[in-house]
Amino acid sequence: TNVARTFGIRVGLGVLLLDALKGALAITMAYHLLPHQGAWVSLAGVAAMLGHVFSPFMKFRGGKGIATGLGVLIALFWPAAAIASLGFALVVFLFRIVSLASFAAMVAALVSFWLFGQTTDFWFFGVPAVMLAFWAHRSNWRRLLQGQEPRFGR
């Protein structure tokens, strides 16, 4: 969102795509390096998100990890990515607040794991990812509570 606000929607979409590819690549590599090790594959997704949020290339101050998490979900269990994306779109449509939509998307992914009866391996990504997303958005939560969180398109 910050890149799109600063440099325009095209650059923002490009960054979103690259961040999502980073997450998907982490899962794809883990699948090949750790076959039949679902929990470790899921934890590779958490590692990708952590690497994004605490990027050593940016003095350990990176992004919020949501696009990277989307890429992880696409590679790990695409129905969860679809449900998360729908949840994101719905919250943006209703409230026009991207940070709230980002967190709603992560929670929607967790709910989809439960609805589809996924193994505990998926929860090794889902629960830490939601916790990290909540933590990464802590300044957004403060602004939301104060009624100062910027709305999308304004």
Q: What does this protein structure show overall?
A:
The chain is an all-alpha fold and 154 residues long. The protein has one domain. It is 78% helix and 0% strand. It has eight helices and no strands. The chain is globular and about 45 Å long. The two termini are 13 Å apart.
In short:
This protein is 78% helix and 0% strand. The two termini are 13 Å apart.
Number of helices: 8
Helix content: over 70%
Amino-to-carboxy terminus distance: 13 Å
User: How is the biggest beta sheet arranged?
Assistant: none
Quickly count the domains: 1
Indicate the proportion of strand residues.
under 5%
How do the helices and strands follow one another from N- to C-terminus?
HHHHHHHH
What is the structural class?
mainly alpha
Low-confidence spans: none
Shape: globular
Q: Would you spell out the secondary-structure blueprint of this structure?
A:
Blueprint: H1 2-7, H2 9-33, H3 38-53, H4 66-76, H5 78-95, H6 98-115, H7 120-136, H8 138-146
Helix pairs in contact: 2-3, 2-4, 3-4, 3-7, 4-5, 5-6, 6-7
Keywords:
mainly alpha, 78% helix, 154 residues
